[in-house]
Structure formats: C-alpha cells, structure tokens
Design goal:
The complex is a heterodimer of chains A (314) and B (505).
Chain A (H helix, E strand, L loop, with lengths): L1 H7 L2 H26 L7 H19 L2 H25 L4 H24 L14 E2 L9 H5 L1 E2 L1 H19 L1 H11 L1 H6 L4 H27 L11 H11 L4 H24 L6 H19 L19
Antiparallel strand pairs in A: 1-2
Chain B lengths: L5 E10 L2 E11 L4 E6 L5 H8 L7 E6 L2 E3 L4 H6 L2 E4 L11 H6 L11 H15 L14 H14 L4 E5 L7 H16 L3 E5 L3 H7 L2 E6 L2 E6 L7 H9 L16 E9 L11 E6 L2 E6 L6 H8 L7 E6 L2 E3 L4 H6 L2 E4 L3 H5 L6 H6 L9 E2 L2 E2 L1 H14 L16 H13 L5 E5 L7 H16 L3 E5 L3 H7 L2 E6 L2 E7 L5 H8 L9
Parallel strand pairs in B: 3-8, 3-9, 6-7, 7-8, 13-20, 13-21, 16-19, 19-20
Antiparallel strand pairs in B: 1-2, 1-4, 4-5, 9-10, 11-12, 11-14, 14-15, 17-18, 21-22
Helix pairs in contact in B: 14-15
C-alpha cells in the first residue's frame, strides 16, 4: 500500500494537479464575477466548448498560440454579452437563458468544427503550449518543479486569484459589483448602474471561460475533441458554491477537485485496485456532490442572484 | 421668504391606465419640514420617486436652487443634493456599515477610500448627532439603527433635500423622537426635509407645512397645521367624513386561548422564550413590539404552522400539539397573516378561488372531489356584496385588486365562518384611513359578539384604540402585559426597546 502511495505522490502528481486545477480556477473565478453581480451563468459549459474550438482553430491556421488565446477570450466575451442581453437587458430567466446558451454554444462549436475541418481521417493537431521554467524559482527543490515549471496560462490563473480578491474587496469597482449582487436597489440609489455591472461581470466570466477553453485545447491537450470540456463547466458552478463566492476559497475548491481527479487518474493507471474504471472517473464528481452538501448548508448566496432588476417596477 | 431649495412643477406620470401623478407641483424651502399626506395610491411615493430619479415623469420640470435640472436616475438626484430614505431600506445586510456608505464612491488611486468616508461620517456625527459604528455588519443593527444609517448615507453623499418615506412605521416611540431631533437639526442647518407618513399625530408634531394629495393630485396645502385637527386632516386626505369607531364596554368571559410557557427551537433573536398569556372571549389582545421580536412565531403557532418546542397551547380547552393548520381552523381560528400577498392569498389565482381556498374541502363547496362552481359563485358574490369589495368580477386575478380590497377579501373569507378567535397580524399595514377603519369596525364587532381577537401591530395608535389589554414582545419574550387603562405610549415604547419593568407585587 505504501508503495502505491509513494508511487502516486511524486512531483509529477502535484504538477499535474495544478494543471488540472487551472481551467477550473479560470472558470470558477469567472463565474464568481457573474454571480457576485447577481447573474448565474449556466452558459459556462457551452462557452468553454465554443472558446476551446475558437482558440484551437485560430491557432491551427495562424500557428500563433496567443492569437488563439485572444480569439478564445473574444468568443467568450461575445457569449457573455449574449447572456447579458437575455438576462440583464431583457430580464429573462437566468436558468433558461444559461442552459440555452450552453446548448447554443456547444452546437455552434460542433458545427463550426465540422465546417472548418470536415471529417478528417486523423485528428487535426497544433503545437501546444510548452512549460516555462521561471528562472531561479524553478530551481527550488520540490516546489520549483511543481509550481514554477508550468504553462504560462497556469501562472496567469494563479495570479488571478489574489488579483480577484483585491479587485473584489479593495476597490470601489469590487464593492459596487458586490452591492449589485446583494441589493441592486442599494447600488442604484447610490448612482451605480446595475446593468453596467452585470454586463461587466458577464464579460469577465466570458473572457475567463475563454482562458479555460484555450487551456484545455491548447495546453492540456493539443487538439479539439467534442469531449474536451466534459462537464468541467458544471463543476465550476458547483465549486463557486463550495468556495462561497470567494476567490481564495474557490481556488482551494478547484485544487481539492483537481487532487481527487489526479489521484483517480493515477489509481486507474496503477491498476492495483480491481474495479471498473468508471468508479475512478466518478470520484471527483462524488466529491463535488458531497462537498457541496456539506458546505452549501452554510453558504450565503448573493441575495440578488437570479433576480432581474427593473428600475421602474411597481 | 427665501428662494426655494427645490421645485417640482406640473409633474405627471402615468402607469398603464392609472394617472399616478396628475399635474402636481410642490416646493421645498431651506429649513422646511414638509409633510406629504395622502391615502394609499394617492401618488406620494410616485412623486418622490420622480424626484429621486427612479421614475421619469411624462411631463413637468424640476428646479433645484432656481435652475432647471434633468433627473433621470438616482446618480443625477444625488449630484443635485436630493437624498431619499425608502420605506424598505436599500442596504446590504452582509456588508459593514462603512461598505454600505462607500458604494458608488470614486475611490482614490483605484482603491476604496475609507478615510474620506470615515471623515464624512464624523462630520455628520458632529453636525446632526447621527452615528453608527462603521465596522458593524448591517445585519447586526436594529431597525432604528439601520434607518439612521440610511439617513447618514444620504447626508454623507451631500443631500441638501432629504425625502423620508414613512420613516417611523417600524420605530419605537423613543427612536421616533430621536429621528425627529435629527430632522430638526437638519432643518436648522438650512436643509429641506420631506416627511411622508400616515401617522397624523407625528405629522402635526414635526412638520411646519403640509401638502395633501388625493388621486394623483395636490388637493390642499396648509402652512400652519397646529390649528388643524387630525379629524380635518384625515378628511382632507380621504375626501369624505370619518367617524371614529366606538368601543363599547364588554365583559370578557371564558378563556379561548392560553399559552403556557411556550418556547420555540433555534437561535434566532425572534425565537419564543417562555411565553404565557390568555385570551378571553369578548376581548382584543394587542401585541406590540418592533417586528422580528417573535410576533411571527407567535402567529405561526396559533395558526398551526409551527409546533411549540416546549410548553403548551390550548385553544378552547383543547391542547394543541402538532395540530395542522386545518385542525386549527376547525377549532374556530380565523387568520389574517402579516403578508397578505405571500401567505394570505395566492395572487395569481382568481379572487373567487381565494375566497374559498381554506374551506374547499367542505361538502358545501365540493362533492366527491368535484368543485360545485355554482355554490362557490353564489357564496363569493354574497361576500363581495357584504364586505363591499370593489372588484369588477369574482373572476378577476386577485393580484389586480388594491391593497385595501385584498385585505377586505381576506377578512371576508375568515369572518364568513364566524371564528371564535381571530388572529390578525398587521391587518392595516399599508391601508389608508378609510380601509383601516373598516377593518377596525369588524374587529370591534367580533369583540361585541363574544369572540377573541389577537391583534399584532406596529401601529401603536391602532393598538391603543382597539385593545383591551396590550402585551409587548421583545426578543421572543413578553416584556410586559397590561390593561389598556394602564398603558401609555411612553411605557409601551420603553418595553418595546427592551427596558425591564420592576415587577409590581
């Protein structure tokens, strides 16, 4: 048993853990901005699929990875704006709009992939992101190879966590955003435009879902497949509850999920425990459900989440 | 006379087919405390929301310091020095006082500027004596403190004219006195205050000028209201004569309802903690208290929605333990819940369905599970007639009725069964003088007929006018219970604020 454990918990395991966590951090933090403004973005699953496709295709033709990342982010922003149009400007149900956007975006991503690539005999591939070793820091024993020899997008995700906390808690923008999500009338009567902040939350959520999608298709893998996202968007929706709408706690949730995901991958590969492999695949999701059940009892949801704001309401 | 601080000229605003404001003009002078009076739906709140930029008027102009301004949103209003304290507070309970005050600020170097807000708070404290600890969570504040915070918020943002929309409806008398002092100091600093209230006594005490609205129009403007009687003010508001209800002497008889040392589980401030009292036939027992001190729990126990955790409740001699709301109804308890739109009625259903909803299982209205539409229709039409419910038809969507008519419908439904006990939770909240009086007359009728009424209310005037005894609730306890002859506003107010009385032997 200890042999298995020492086999599993190697440097490579923890480096993989961080990589698995990265798209979840992007997605969850992005979702946090939208939900803190009062909009539940159930479109995230589809947005990640579409942005992964957009990023991948752009890079495939331009051979430029960062152009692909930009294309993915721009696509996410467009989807976020559409979500804003439906839920903020038109005040439609956030649940229905979000699921609609997920269906629309996943459909579009399949459609455009077929349109662009047809049905190729072999999977179109790109040269993906390489890891970037940070001078000096990457030489630190253990920590160095785990944290400081990663993809550039991983660093961006890690930096995004404290930056988001700072934005949210230390700037007027963050206070306004939080107030819009708690009591839009309080924000409005303080001269804050509720819809502007909700759109901004959705634009950030869209851009970050773009980073998540780009990471999946261009760093984690080097190709786009229809299963590239496979429920990670939904996991982000759960993680934001687990993380109680706080950047640090959400990131912690992403790491916990990634830990279990990395663990089940290793256990699967080790072939020591003889159960159907689907049992392993299930583990992170079981964790998500149990974790949610435990934490969400005390979770304090932004009070105005799901509630459209109309100024002239009687 | 000095130049006016602000003027509204010829304001009209239409919602659908309703003219909420019809060519309304109003001016506010520095040092003014202006009372804005009117029945429900007279257009007071609409007018103030126009001034604060929540509604855009169809026609009319607003001038501030003599200059015409366009107020299209609250930001514009604030910039022109107009602040408003809404009836429902616009605060974020899970944020601190300071965070609530900093919303909408520009910040300094991209960061929140705590220092300048704290400084502004200090200025407000020095000038007007208004202060709340900046690091407290709003959810930990009392209602009175939350309101003070709302006023501070307006002042910190530089309000020169302040609108207060029914600010006293949830305050204890002492808190009200504190509010009035602050209003006076604002007026003496050259600010203008607009005070909206249904409580005529307070209007007479604090205002120096009164504007009365009816059906969207200004119907009277009185400069000196000390010599105007409250009766006259009320009649100006509703446009017809008002005769106050007469309370005849009735001797209370047998005990209808008894609470013995009743507690409810949980940790909330409003959890009941050992409550005992009796209600007798022919009696109106008033329950006073700031909302959220256990009144809701008390009402839910009596209506069978909440089971007591310890202690016992007896209704007409029957021990109530885990009785369902229907069992309670069968024992003869009628109920007017606090929230008529949420719990009392289902507003999306037709009126006639609501009128029979709690009794739909009775053979009178259904035969083997099939509704007897004709019998229902006849019953509902009769009730509409008797209770003078103004509705175009029994089939109208309930939510389309006005507040007063909704309350009449609820009352009709409950009284149709001649209940032994009527539980009325805030029965006249938001009702205008005429509708409230109708409700009061019905209560007194019940009392005369040997029924018992539990009247939970935040309106002390109402409690004093109707009750035979008054119990005051504070933090889930009965902090004092007294016959009406021994009750004074002062005494009840102190009990509401949690003061203990020495137990008289």
């Amino acid at each position: 048993m200890s042999e298995i454990l020492s086999q599993i918990f190697q440097i490579g395991f923890f480096a993989a853990l961080i990589r698995i966590a990265t798209p979840l951090i992007f997605g969850t933090i992005g979702e946090m901005y939208a939900e803190r403004a009062g909009v539940l973005n159930l479109g995230i699953e589809g947005m990640m699929m579409l942005t992964a496709m957009a990023g991948f295709s752009t890079t495939y033709f331009t051979h430029n990875l960062w152009l692909g990342v930009l294309a993915a982010m721009a696509t996410g922003v467009l989807a976020g704006l559409l979500m804003g149009l439906l839920t903020v400007s038109l005040g439609l149900s956030q649940h229905v709009s979000g699921i609609g956007i997920t269906l629309l975006c996943s459909g579009l991503s399949f459609f455009f992939y077929r349109l662009i690539f047809g049905q190729p005999a072999s999977l179109p591939k790109i040269k993906p992101f390489h890891t970037v070793a940070i001078p000096v820091l990457s030489k630190i024993p253990i920590i160095g190879p785990i944290v400081f020899n990663q993809f550039a997008l991983v660093y961006i995700a890690l930096i995004f966590v404290p930056v988001s906390a700072w934005l949210l808690y230390s700037t007027p923008w963050g206070l306004n955003l939080r107030t819009v999500g708690e009591n839009p009338k309080a924000a409005y009567s303080a001269g804050v435009s509720v819809s502007a902040y909700r759109y901004q939350g959705l634009i950030i959520a869209g851009a970050l879902s773009g980073l998540a999608g780009a990471f999946l298709a261009m760093a984690q893998y080097n190709a786009y497949t229809f299963g590239v996202v496979s429920g990670r968007g939904w996991v982000c929706i759960a993680l934001i509850v687990f993380g109680q709408w706080d950047p640090y706690k959400s990131a912690a949730g992403a790491f916990l999920f990634a830990f279990i995901d990395a663990l089940q991958l290793r256990l699967q590969a080790s072939g020591v425990i003889h159960v159907p492999y689907q049992v392993f695949l299930m583990m992170p999701f079981v964790f998500t459900i149990v974790g949610m059940a435990l934490v969400s009892r005390n979770a304090r949801v932004p009070a105005a989440l799901l509630k459209p704001f109309r100024k002239e309401e009687r | 006379m000095p130049a006016p601080l602000l003027e509204m000229v010829g304001i009209s605003k239409t919602f659908g087919s309703v003219k909420a404001n019809d060519n309304v003009s109003l001016s506010l002078y520095p040092g003014d405390i202006l009372g804005l009076l009117g029945e429900n739906g007279a257009g007071k709140t609409t007018l103030m929301n126009v001034l604060f930029g929540v509604y855009t008027p169809d026609t009319g102009i607003i001038r501030i310091n003599g200059k015409q301004v366009k107020i299209q949103n609250s930001a514009d209003a604030l910039r022109h020095g107009v602040g408003m304290v809404h009836q429902h507070f616009h605060l974020v309970p899970c944020h601190t006082v300071l965070e609530n005050l900093m919303v909408g600020q520009k910040g300094r170097g991209g960061k929140l500027d705590r220092k300048s807000t704290l400084e502004a708070m200090r200025v407000v404290k020095d000038r007007f004596g208004l202060y709340v600890e900046p690091e407290t969570l709003v959810s930990d504040l009392t209602v009175g403190e939350q309101q003070r915070l709302e006023i501070i918020k307006a002042l910190v943002r530089g309000a020169r004219a302040l609108i207060l929309d029914e600010p006293t409806s949830t305050l204890t008398p002492q808190e009200t006195e504190g509010l009035f002092e602050a209003m006076r100091s604002m007026a003496s600093e050259g600010m203008g205050v607009i005070f909206i209230s249904h409580k005529l006594q307070e209007v007479q005490e604090i205002t120096n000028r009164v504007v009365i609205m009816r059906k969207g129009k200004v119907t009277a403007e009185l400069d000196n209201i000390e010599h105007v009687s409250r009766q006259e003010l009320a009649e100006l508001m509703c446009g017809h004569e008002i005769t106050p209800p007469v309370k005849e002497p009735v001797t209370p008889k047998e005990v209808l309802l008894e609470f013995k040392d009743v507690s409810t589980p949980g940790f909330a401030r409003s959890r009941l903690k050992g409550i005992s009292f009796q209600l007798r036939a022919g009696e109106i027992l008033g329950i006073a208290g700031v909302s959220g001190n256990g009144q809701r729990e008390l009402a839910e126990i009596i209506s069978g929605m909440l089971a007591p955790f310890s202690g016992s409740v007896e209704i007409r001699g029957k021990v109530m333990n885990r009785l369902s709301p229907r069992d309670v109804q069968k024992l003869g308890v009628g109920r007017i819940p606090e929230d008529r739109m949420e719990i009392g009625l289902i507003i999306s259903l037709p009126l006639k369905d609501n009128m029979i909803l709690p009794r739909v299982h009775e053979p009178r209205f259904n035969r083997k599970g099939v509704l007897l539409r004709r019998a229902i229709d006849a019953f509902v039409r009769e009730q509409i007639e008797v209770f003078d419910i103004r509705t175009p038809s029994p089939d109208i969507r309930t939510g389309a009725l006005s507040g007063g008519n909704l309350q009449k419908a609820l009352l009709a439904r409950e009284l149709a069964w001649d209940p032994y006990i009527l539980l009325a939770d805030q029965p006249t909240r938001g009702l205008d003088v005429g509708a409230a009086q109708f409700v009061h007359e019905k209560f007194l009728e019940l009392r005369k007929n040997g029924r018992g009424v539990i009247l939970i209310s935040e309106d002390l005037e109402e409690l004093f006018a109707l009750s035979d005894r008054i119990a005051v609730m504070y933090e889930g306890k009965i902090n004092g219970i007294m016959p009406i002859s021994e009750a004074t506003v002062q005494r009840v107010g102190l009990l509401m604020a949690g003061m203990e009385e020495e137990v008289a032997a």
